[in-house]
Amino acid sequence: MKRTEPPLVPEEALQAQRDAMREISAWPNRPQTYWIVTYGCQMNAHDSETLSGMLSEMGLRQAASRDGADLILFNTCCIRDNAERKALGNMTWLRQLKARRPELVLCVCGCMVQQPKMSQVLLRQYPFFDVAFGTHNLYRFPSLLLRALQTRRQVIEAGESDGCIAEGLPVRRESPFRAYVTIMYGCDNFCSYCIVPYVRGRERSRHPDAILREAEALVADGVQEIMLLGQNVNSYGNDLSGAPSFARLLRSLDSLGVPRIRFMTSHPKDISDELIDAMASSAHVAAHLHLPVQSGSDAVLRAMNRGYTRETYLRRAAALRAAMPDIALTTDLIVGFPGETEEDFADTLSLVEQMRYDSAYTFIFSPREGTRASRMSGQVPAPVATERIERLIAAQERISAQIYAGLVGTRQCVLAEERSRRREGQIAGKCSRGLTCNFDGDAAMIGRFVPVRITEAGHNTLRAVPLAKEEA
Ligand code: SAH
Ligand code: SF4
Ligand code: F3S
User: Fold this and answer.
1) Which residues line ligand 1 (CB under 6 A)?
2) Residue 284 CA from chain centroid, whole number
3) Are 95 and 128 in contact (CB under 8 A)?
4) pTM of the model
5) 40 CA to centre of ligand 3 in angstroms
6) Digit-coded pLDDT (tens) for 272-289
7) Radius of gyration from C-alpha coordinates of the chain
8) Which Pfam families does this one have (predicted)?
9) Ligand 2 mutation target, pool 264, 266, 267, 361, most atoms within 8 A of CB
10) Residues whose CB falls within 8 Å of the CB of residue 210, separated by 6 or more in sequence, listed in order
11) Average pLDDT over residues 352-381
C-alpha cells in the first residue's frame, strides 16, 4: 500500500533535538572539537555531513587532527567483512586513546551498530564508547550525547523503531560547490547477499517538494554539482502516492538549473524508457551511469535475486547507449557468490568484455549474517575467488586503459575540485563521465567548470590542458 505522505519524524521530536543542541553548546566542560571517521558509501558520507552539522550547532569545531579531537565519532559500514574489520581494527586505537585521555568522548554509529545484537556486543566488548546509535536514530544524536554528558554512562540506541525521515537537520557540507541530496532512504530489493535492507530499513521516499526546495537552496548557494542519493534511485516514489517517477523528478531538477546532476545507485531492473529519455533530453545530467550488474551468469543473477537476466541487462545498456552514444557506464561485480562455477565466472568475464565499462568495483562475496546467501550451499573457497577476481581486474584494467586512451584529443568539461595532491601547480577535477582529470591551473579555478582537452591517459586519471576561450 502506498502512503500519501512520507513518514516524517514529528516536529516535537525534532524540537527536542534542537533543545539538546542548545543545552550542549552551553554545557560546562563540553568537548570543543570533533573528528568524524566515515566508512562505507555516499549515504554514510552524507550522514557524516549531517552529524557534522549537528556538532557545529552544539558549538564544536572540526579538530585539526584526529588525535587532538575532544570527541571522536566513527560512522561505520558493514557491507562486507573487510569494511567491518577496518572499523574494529581502529577501535583498538580508540581504546588506547581513551586510556590516555579519559575525558575524550567516543561515539559510534552507522550500519554496523544497526545490526541485530550489535548493541550487546558494544556494551560488552567496547565499553569505552560513550554513545552508540543506529542509522534509524541518527537524528537523535544530540539528545543521546546530552544524556551521556549528564549521566557519564554509556548510552546506546539502535532500535528498529521508526525508520522515519527527519527533515530540516543541519548539514555541514564537505565541499562548497558539490552537494549530496538524499531522495530516498532504505531498500526493498533484498538481493540475497546484501545487508543494506536490514540496516537501512524499508524504502522511504522524501517528499518531492522537500527535494526541490533543498536543490533550489543549493543552487542559490552556488553549488555546481548535485549527487542524488538512494540505494535504488530508480524506484523513487514507488512508496508514495502522487509522487513523480524518478524520471519526472530528474526533469524537474534539470529545469531548476543545477549545473551538473549525478545520481546513484541505479538498479538495472528499474531503468525505464522514461528515465533514458529524461537523461538524454536533459541539459545538466552527467554523461555517466553507474549500473551495477554483479554477475554475467543468469544462474547467479537468479540466486542473487537481482530481478534481471544477462539479456535484459544488455538490452537496457544498449538502449542507454543508443540514446546517449557518449555515456560512460560503470558497474559493481561480485565474484565467488555461492555456487558460482568456472562457467558462471566465464559469463561474467565475457559480459565485461561486451559491456566495455569505463571502470568497475570488484568484490569477493562476503557472507553477511542474516542474509540468504550466507546460508547457501556451494560457498566458493577463498583461493578460487581470489584467482577469479584477479583475472576480472586484469580484464577490466585492460578495457579501462583502452577507453581512456580513446579519450585523448577529446574536449571535456571538468569541474575543478582541488589542488592536485601529487603535482605542484596542478588542479584535479572530474569530467562529465566521472573521470579524474589533472591540468595546469590555479586555485581560482576551483569550484568552476573548466573546458579542457585530454592530452594523455594515465592509470586511473587523465591529463589535460585547459582550452583557451576561443577554443572552448
Ligand atoms: N544499492 C546499490 C549498492 C549497494 S552496496 C546497488 O544495488 O547496486 C555496493 C556494492 O557492494 C554492491 O553493488 C555489491 O557489488 C557489493 N556488495 C554488497 N553486498 C556484498 C557482499 N555481501 N559481498 C560482496 N560484495 C557485496
Ligand atoms: Fe543491496 Fe540489492 Fe538493495 Fe543494492 S538493491 S542495496 S545490492 S539489496
Ligand atoms: Fe555500508 Fe551502510 Fe553504505 S552497510 S555501503 S554504509 S548503506
Assistant:
1) 79-80, 193-194, 196, 231-232, 265, 267, 292, 294, 332, 334, 363, 365-366, 368
2) 21
3) yes
4) 0.96
5) 5
6) 999 999 999 999 999 999
7) 23
8) Radical_SAM, TRAM, UPF0004
9) 267
10) 167
11) 97
